[in-house]
Amino acid sequence: MTIYTIDTNNQQNPLEQLESATFAALDYKERDHIQEWVDKTPGCLGEPLLMLG
User: Fold this and answer.
1) Over the stretch 2-52, which tens digit does the pLDDT of each residue have?
2) What is d(CA 19, CA 5) in angstroms, rounded to the nearest whole number?
3) Per its UniProt entry, which superkingdom is the organism in (predicted)?
4) Cα atoms in the Cβ-side hemisphere of radius 13 Å centred on 34
5) Among 9, 10, 11, 28, which is disulfide-ready with 33 (CB 3.0 to 4.6 Å)?
6) pTM exceeds 0.85
7) Which whole-number Å values give the CA distances from 29 to 3, 8, 38, in the listed order?
């Protein structure tokens, strides 16, 4: 799926396609990064969650 960013200051071409990347290519680790992000922003997954620690 292609994802775009919107630049409202650029009237000629406000959409810019973002490059695809994987968590592995960016050296993001599930325990060190992704779990922390989800813990801080659980709504990012799109549904109510009960966080158990």
Assistant:
1) 899 999 999 999 999 999 999 899 999 988 888 888 888 888 888 877 777
2) 11
3) Bacteria
4) 10
5) 28
6) no
7) 22, 33, 13
43, 34 in Cβ contact below 8 A? no
**What CA–CA distance (Å, rounded) separates 5 from 2?**
10
Which range marks the domain in which residue 16 is found?
Answer: 4-44
Distance CA 53, CA 40 (A): 13
How far is residue 30 CA from its own chain's centroid? 13
* Total domains in the fold of the chain: 1
Phi/psi at 4 (5° precision): -120, 155
Among 20, 23, 17, which Cα is nearest to 5's?
17
Q: For residue 2, what are the contacts with CB-CB under 8 A and spacing of at least 6?
A: 17, 18
